[in-house]
């Protein structure tokens, strides 16, 4: 018995050593995957988009920063273009300014993006707007505006860039969705609807472009500590102007940006970045919908009481 154990020892140690070497090589390969890659980030002037710009720039990507505010984009590009002491080669980002909610101009923006480097390796559809309000008090034009920004805009940009990816048989499309693309909570109808549509569209896209060797990732974070709720629109289209407690105590956008980088590096297909309760809620919605509906109705009543107090 002792001889058997003694003989197996070197074999076990050797196996562990090979596994460690393989793991380290994989980590090194993943870290180098984005070096020199062309990465497009929408909504890059603030919030999660800005943090993604920092993270992907540090990874050696050639960034194309997109958004509506040209001044902020140029300031960010200048900031990232300053020399660093790191060993990794970095590049001064380029900028393309356009309004994602105006889908008629997105095709032209897609052409301008492609002219920067001739191709796109990674497209990160991050830009979006949130909503707070009662369906009864919300004009249908507000619902449409949220869908234009959160759904039709990213769809139009993706379809403007997609043919070049198919032609090269290389590319990665990322959609920053939300937990509310998996479950719908009261007083978020326009936002939840746009994110549900986002999940469905990019799930379909993933299946259709797999034969071309393209990657599609949907990332669904919970609350992130950004100005998303403050800048949300209400039922009449006005600004919500309130930093919700759930948003104020949400995830650090830097942490989420690193999760986006990891998802791209590891070519993950679907990523849920949520705490225990939202994660459980996603499973309850699927496995026990009747309970989920009761919980959401209770939440709606509670929120209504708080508004009336």
Automatic annotation (TrEMBL):
User: Per the record, what is one GO cellular component?
Assistant: cytoplasm
Query: InterPro entries, alphabetically?
Result: KR_dom (IPR057326), NAD(P)-bd_dom_sf (IPR036291), Sc_DH/Rdtase_CS (IPR020904), SDR_fam (IPR002347)
Which Gene3D superfamilies does this one have?
Answer: NAD(P)-binding Rossmann-like Domain
Segments passing through the bilayer: 6-25
Give the matching PROSITE patterns: ADH_SHORT
In the record, biological process GO terms are: lipid metabolic process
Residues in Ketoreductase domain copies: 37-227
What keywords does the record list, in alphabetical order?
Answer: Membrane, NAD, NADP, Oxidoreductase, Transmembrane, Transmembrane helix
Q: Which GO terms describe its molecular function?
A: oxidoreductase activity, acting on the CH-OH group of donors, NAD or NADP as acceptor
Described function: Putative oxidoreductase.
The entry sums up its family as follows:
Belongs to the short-chain dehydrogenases/reductases (SDR) family.
- The name under which this protein is listed is Dehydrogenase/reductase SDR family member 7B
Identify the taxonomic lineage of the organism of origin: Eukaryota, Metazoa, Chordata, Craniata, Vertebrata
The primary gene name is: dhrs7b
């Amino acid at each position: 018995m002792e001889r058997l154990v003694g003989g197996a020892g070197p074999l076990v140690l050797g196996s562990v050593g090979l596994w460690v070497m393989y793991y380290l090589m994989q980590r090194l390969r993943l870290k180098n995957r984005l070096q020199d890659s062309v990465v497009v980030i929408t909504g890059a002037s603030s919030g999660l988009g800005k943090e993604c710009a920092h993270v992907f720039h540090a990874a050696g990507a050639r960034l194309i920063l997109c958004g509506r505010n040209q001044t902020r984009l140029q300031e960010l590009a200048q900031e990232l273009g300053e020399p660093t002491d790191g060993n990794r080669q970095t590049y001064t980002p380029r900028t393309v300014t356009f309004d994602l909610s105006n889908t008629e101009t997105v095709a032209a923006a897609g052409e301008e993006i492609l002219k920067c480097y001739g191709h796109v390796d990674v497209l990160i559809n991050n830009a979006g707007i949130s909503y707070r309000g009662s369906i009864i008090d919300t004009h249908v034009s507000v619902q449409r505006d949220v869908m234009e920004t959160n759904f039709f805009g990213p769809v139009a940009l993706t379809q403007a860039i997609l043919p070049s990816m198919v032609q090269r048989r290389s590319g990665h499309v990322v959609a920053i969705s939300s937990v509310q693309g998996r479950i719908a909570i009261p007083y978020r109808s326009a936002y939840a609807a746009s994110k549900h549509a986002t999940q469905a569209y990019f799930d379909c896209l993933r299946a259709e472009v797999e034969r071309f060797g393209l990657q599609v990732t949907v990332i669904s974070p919970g609350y992130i500590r950004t100005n998303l709720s403050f800048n949300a629109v209400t039922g009449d289209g006005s600004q919500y102007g309130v930093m919700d407690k759930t948003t104020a105590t949400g995830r650090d956008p830097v942490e989420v940006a690193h999760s986006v980088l990891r998802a791209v590096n590891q070519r993950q297909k679907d990523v849920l970045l949520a705490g225990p309760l939202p994660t459980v809620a996603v499973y309850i919605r699927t496995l026990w919908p009747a309970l989920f509906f009761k919980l959401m109705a209770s939440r709606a009543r509670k929120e209504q009481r708080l508004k009336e107090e």
